[in-house]
Amino acid sequence: MATSRRGRAKADSGPVSLEQIEREAVRLFSEKTYPVVGMRDISDAVGLLPGSLYVHIRSKEDLLLKIVERGVGSYLDALLPLAESTEPARDRLREAVLTYMHTLDATLAQTKVAVFQWRYLNEENRRQVAHLRQQYEDIFHKIVESGISSGEFTKPKNPKVTIFGLIGLLNSTMHWYSPEGGLSATEVGENLADLILDGLDAH
Amino acid sequence: MATSRRGRAKADSGPVSLEQIEREAVRLFSEKTYPVVGMRDISDAVGLLPGSLYVHIRSKEDLLLKIVERGVGSYLDALLPLAESTEPARDRLREAVLTYMHTLDATLAQTKVAVFQWRYLNEENRRQVAHLRQQYEDIFHKIVESGISSGEFTKPKNPKVTIFGLIGLLNSTMHWYSPEGGLSATEVGENLADLILDGLDAH
DNA sequence: CCTACCGATCGGTAGG
DNA sequence: CCTACCGATCGGTAGG
Questions:
Q1: Under an 8 A CB cutoff, do B168 and A165 touch?
Q2: What is the largest CA-CA distance in chain B?
Q3: Is the pLDDT at A188 greater than 70, yes or no?
Q4: Which pTM does this prediction carry?
């Protein structure tokens, strides 16, 4: 016989760890979204029977919550230093865009789950996550506002639209960026920073 | 008794039309996403029993397909004239951003379904939709490329990143824009067009 | 970590 | 458009 358990997807390699379960869950959630991934899909991927997953996790909801929190946390860890820095806002913004792209490159699947699928959490867990998301958005808010008040940036009619636009532009990269694609995270970041800082117009 | 049928959500008003079903489906799919909306949610919303929906529609999948096709179609109808126009690229791009925002304002819920939930269609239907999506992206491709080759726009290191960025920026507005919010679609559009054309930097 | 199973819910249909 | 129902699948659990 090829394997010792039904449904095992990989060669036998000792007991299954929580990390393995979470890794497969991130992959499956990012590919197919939370509601259409069944616990049986996850158990198949790690080579357990469905009920055995509950030795390692408490619930499907819990699994999603941890992934979302780690996902947002990755960006907070990487970007928070740039919010407090005293460098020129232009440099900090460019650095933030590059840092965003490098974080995306390292955690693409986790990012897809964190940015869009927190909506499937229950109300209490969504509130937890809203806190983290707010901190994340505040980083860009601070950088842009400091550039406006220092005169480095042209004051937009409505800074909030500009900040939401900037965040939306960055978040949208996860729909087409791939580490295996022809463009490096740095190349994409430089290009987007150019667009945000200088615009398209040749004036 | 208050109503003549169980589960009826609204006052009795004659037979249910296909348009009513589609309207409630758009609302529910946009609020909760396709996989977590049951046919029973839709039938409750229009005041039918679940099985009776199939007098009007063929399947849940069919309902989604029609909504997605109409959603993308709204943008194609509004934006296609701008792809062929001979006006300066700067004017066409600003006009395209404003037209995008006005279309979003008129069809917000439908847009949310069309832009993100086509992934739940089966392979054959996804191929249909991919065609429409490609036409939509080509509009921005044409405008930006014509501005680059005419010298109106600074040539980006990689125009594809710029075009994907532009499309992503526009698509991301549906996550925070609301017709009931404090900002009009025109105000948002002007601000985003300023950002894309002139950037943040005061040079 | 498996065996065996639970109640709930899903999209959809036959027959009227 | 309703009545009555189908097989399939869902997240999760008791007991070992």
A1: no
A2: 72
A3: yes
A4: 0.93
